[in-house]
Write a structure and sequence with these properties.
- It is a single chain.
- With about 375 residues, the protein is of the alpha+beta class.
- It has helices spanning about 25-30, 70-75, 100-110, 120-135, 210-225, 270-280, 295-300, 340-350, and strands spanning about 15, 40-50, 55-60, 80, 85-90, 95, 145-155, 165-175, 185-190, 230-235, 240-245, 250-255, 260, 285-290, 305-310, 315-325, 330, 365.
- It binds pyridoxal-5'-phosphate (PLP) and 2-OXO-4-methylpentanoic acid.
Length: about 375
C-alpha cells in the first residue's frame, strides 16, 4: 500500500483557533474537569484512502466533522478508538503512559475491524502535536489529567457492505478528573444476566464502538439498580467473568494472589497489565485464567477472596464493594476499599505523576 507520509517526519499543517478558551474560563474548567464533558481548542486529523495511504495530517480548531450522510460508519459502525492520558508533573512537564501499547492495540483493533493500521509513530506524533497547541489544557490539580481520545472511522459514502476505502483518524482531548463521581471510593456493580457484551469470534477484544453500544442496555440496568457499572459474563456458559462495560476486573485472594479473567473476548487493558506487573514486582503471584462467578461468590463467603477492583485508564483503579445480581449479592455497599487495591493504585499514580522513579520506562514526555 502506498504511503504518502515518510515514517519519521510527520509534518502537521496547522490552523489555529481564532478564539481559544480564555484563561479565566479555562481555570474554572480545569479546577473541576469532570470526565469527557469539555474539549480542548484543537483536534488532529489524518486521512487515509486506499489509493493514497495516510495523508494530510492537520491540526484544526476543535469543531464538527463534516460527513456525507452515507458515510459507512453511520450505517455499519466500522469504527475504533483508544483512551490514554497526559499527566502534568510537579515541574510542569507533560507525560503520557505507555502510548506505544495504546498504538499497538489501536492497530489490533483496526485489523479486526478491517480498517487501515495507523503507524505507531503517527499515533504518538498526533499526541505530541495536540499537546504542542493545547498544553494549557493539561490540569495540575491532584489526580487530574488530560484524557486523549484517538479514533478512526469509515468515512466513505457507500452503502454496500465492505471495508471502506476512505477512512479518517482524529484525536481529541478532554481534561479529566475522577471517572466516578465518588472518586476512588468503592463502587457497586450490576451483574448482567440477560445481555452479553461480546461473543466467541466476535469483536470483544477490539476497542470498537459496537461493543460499547451493546453494553448500554445493561449499563442502564445497572443504574436502575443503583450500581455504577455493569459486569458481563462469558456468552457461552454465562459463568465466567469477562469485564465491566469500560474496565477490567481483578480479584485478590487471601494469600495475596491476584486473579484476572483470561478471555479472547475482553479488552487487554494496559492499566491491568501495569498493575499486575507492579504486584509481581512486590512478589505477588498473578493468575490470568478463567474465573467463575461462583469462585468470587464462594471466595468472599469463605474469606478466600479479600478484595476486588476494577481498572482502566478512565477509572484508574477503583475498589468494588458490592456485586448485585437478580438473585444474590456479594459484598456490601459500605465495604471499605481493600488495602492492596489502594496501595497498587497509589503506586501506579505515583509513577504516572512522576512522584516515584519510572523503573519500567513506561512514561513518554510529550512537551519537548
Ligand atoms: N475494558 C474495557 C471494555 C474498556 O473500555 C477499558 C478502557 O479502556 C478497559 C477494559 C481498560 O483498558 P485500559 O486499561 O487500557 O484503559
Ligand atoms: C478508558 O478507560 O479509556 C475507556 O475507554 C473507558 C470508557 C470511558 C469507555
Amino acid at each position: 500500500m502506498k504511503n504518502l507520509l515518510a515514517d519519521s517526519t510527520l509534518e502537521f499543517a496547522r490552523t489555529l483557533h481564532d478564539s481559544p478558551r480564555g484563561e479565566d474560563d479555562l481555570s474554572r474548567i480545569l479546577a473541576e474537569p469532570g470526565f469527557g464533558e469539555v474539549f480542548t481548542d484543537h483536534m488532529v486529523d489524518i486521512h487515509w484512502s486506499e489509493k493514497g495511504g495516510w495523508h494530510r495530517p492537520r491540526v484544526l480548531p476543535y469543531g464538527p466533522i463534516s460527513l456525507d450522510p452515507a458515510a459507512a460508519v453511520l450505517h455499519y459502525g466500522q469504527e475504533i478508538f483508544e483512551g490514554l492520558k497526559a499527566y502534568r508533573h510537579a515541574d510542569g512537564s507533560i507525560w503520557t503512559f505507555r502510548p506505544v501499547e495504546n498504538a499497538k492495540r489501536f492497530q489490533r483493533s483496526a485489523r479486526r475491524m478491517a480498517l487501515p493500521e495507523l503507524p505507531i509513530d503517527y499515533f504518538v506524533a498526533s499526541l505530541r502535536e495536540l499537546i504542542s497547541v493545547d498544553h494549557r489544557w493539561v490540569p495540575s490539580a491532584p489526580e487530574t489529567s488530560l484524557y486523549f481520545r484517538p479514533f478512526m472511522f469509515a468515512a466513505e459514502a457507500f452503502l454496500g457492505v465492505r471495508p471502506a476505502k476512505k477512512v479518517y483518524y482524529h484525536l481529541i482531548a478532554s481534561p479529566a478528573g475522577a471517572y466516578f463521581k465518588s472518586g476512588p471510593a468503592p463502587v457497586s456493580i450490576w451483574l448482567s444476566n440477560d445481555f452479553s457484551r461480546a461473543g466467541k469470534g466476535g469483536t470483544g477484544a477490539a476497542k470498537t464502538g459496537g461493543n460499547y453500544a451493546a453494553s448500554l442496555i445493561a449499563q442502564q440496568e445497572a443504574y436502575d439498580h443503583g450500581c455504577q457499572q455493569v459486569l458481563f459474563l462469558d456468552s457461552v456458559e454465562g459463568r465466567y467473568l469477562e469485564e465491566l462495560g469500560g474496565m477490567n476486573v481483578v480479584l485478590v485472594q487471601r494469600d495475596g494472589t491476584l486473579v484476572t479473567p483470561d478471555s479472547d473476548s475482553i479488552l487487554e487493558g494496559i492499566t491491568r497489565d501495569s498493575i499486575l506487573q507492579l504486584a509481581e514486582d512486590r512478589g505477588h503471584r498473578v493468575e490470568r485464567r478463567r474465573v467463575s462467578i461462583d469462585e468470587w461468590r464462594e471466595g468472599v463467603a469463605s474469606g478466600e477472596v479479600t478484595e476486588v477492583f476494577a481498572c482502566g485508564t478512565a477509572a484508574v483503579v477503583t475498589p468494588i464493594a458490592l456485586l448485585k445480581a437478580t438473585d444474590f449479592e456479594i459484598g456490601a455497599a459500605d465495604a471499605p476499599a481493600g488495602e492492596l487495591t489502594l496501595s497498587l493504585r497509589q503506586e501506579l499514580t505515583d509513577i504516572q505523576y512522576g512522584r516515584v522513579p519510572d523503573r519500567h520506562g513506561w512514561l513518554t514526555r510529550l512537551d519537548s
